[in-house]
Amino acid sequence: MANFALIEWSDNITISDKPPAEYVPTIEARFSPEELRQMYTWNALPERWYEMDYYDFLEERRKRIAAVIRQGFERLKTREPNTPRA
Prior knowledge:
The structure is a single chain. The protein has helices at 9-15, 20-28, 33-42, 54-78. The chain is mainly alpha-helical. The two termini are 23 Å apart. The mean pLDDT is 88.
């Protein structure tokens, strides 16, 4: 579930079996800094994750996934009953 990525078919063919460090910067260029920040936050990705050592990446991502889940639970906990979702 944490590794879901929406990639267009044509991009997937171009990417083939290349490592992320070779193709992610090109994909990142399509987005504004704010869009990237939001995507990276909600997908629990550290900045420049594609350049990290794999095990360091896993350790950092674990922490970030836990933080995203914790934020979700906090939001549920503090929401008033019968309050519409944002």
